[in-house]
């Protein structure tokens, strides 16, 4: 007779995601994962096959939440430029307003981008999804006359994405939230 799982896999992936986000992939040990999830290493490997397997699921969980949250924010009512401004500020502030962890996708790109093809592809997918959502918002702003329609929406979306990624890195060492707000405001003014 097989034993039933003593944990919820979805909750375990969420907990693992938070640990990977806090410590990075390489610095997170299987023992720390076991402790964080409250399961033995054998159960961890049985359920997720490997630390890397669990990291892949965690990165997918992050991608789903990040893109869903971004889409929700960009679909709210009000002027498009203000929605974009608020989204950019939120993206660079980090989860829960704490820039300490930054963005898991950016952290992964920096840590594993050129050494782990699967992680790199997952990060590219997150960035492509963000860029697509930015482009949709920009196109909406162009239709409404808020954003210069002579500018290419995809190029502007690429500019926003690249700026957000750079700002997320900068926010890890920023000496002033005012500097970050100035940069976001300048980006929005460029639209």
Topology:
Layout: H1 9-23, H2 30-37, H3 41-48, H4 51-74, H5 80-93, H6 104-112, H7 117-143, H8 153-171, H9 177-190
Could you name the key traits of this structure?
191 residues; mainly alpha; 9 helices; elongated
Mean pLDDT figure: 89
CATH architecture: Orthogonal Bundle
| Count of individual domains | 1
Structural category: mainly alpha
CATH class: Mainly Alpha
Count of separate DSSP helical elements: 9
The total strand number stands at 0
Q: Helix and strand string, N-terminal first?
A: HHHHHHHHH
In helices, the fraction of residues equals over 70%
Question: Rough shape?
Answer: elongated
| CATH topology-level name | Tetracycline Repressor, domain 2
State the separation between the terminal residues, measured CA to CA: 63 Å
Concise synopsis of the structure shown:
This protein has 191 residues and is mainly α.
Describe the model:
The protein is mainly α and about 190 residues long. It has a single domain, classed as Tetracycline Repressor, domain 2, CATH 1.10.357.10. It is built from nine helices and no strands. The longest helix is centred in the C-terminal third of the chain and has 27 residues, at about 115-145. Residues about 95-100 have low confidence and may be disordered.
């Amino acid at each position: 007779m097989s034993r039933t799982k003593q944990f919820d896999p979805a909750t375990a992936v969420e907990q693992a995601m938070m640990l990977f986000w806090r410590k990075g992939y390489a610095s997170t040990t299987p023992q720390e994962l076991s402790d964080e999830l409250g399961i033995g290493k054998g159960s961890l490997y049985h359920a997720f096959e490997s630390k890397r397997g669990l990291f892949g699921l965690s990165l997918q969980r992050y991608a789903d939440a990040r893109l869903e949250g971004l889409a929700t924010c960009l679909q709210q009512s009000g002027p498009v430029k203000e929605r974009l401004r608020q989204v950019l500020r939120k993206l660079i502030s980090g989860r829960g307003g704490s820039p300490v962890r930054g963005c898991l996708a950016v952290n992964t790109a920096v840590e594993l981008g050129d050494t782990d093809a699967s992680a790199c592809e997952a990060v590219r997918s997150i960035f492509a999804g963000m860029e697509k959502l930015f482009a949709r918002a920009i196109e909406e702003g162009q239709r409404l006359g808020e954003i210069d329609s002579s500018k290419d929406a995809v190029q502007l979306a690429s500019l926003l994405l690249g700026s957000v990624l750079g700002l997320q890195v900068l926010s890890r060492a920023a000496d002033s939230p005012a500097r970050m707000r100035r940069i976001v405001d300048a980006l929005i003014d460029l639209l």
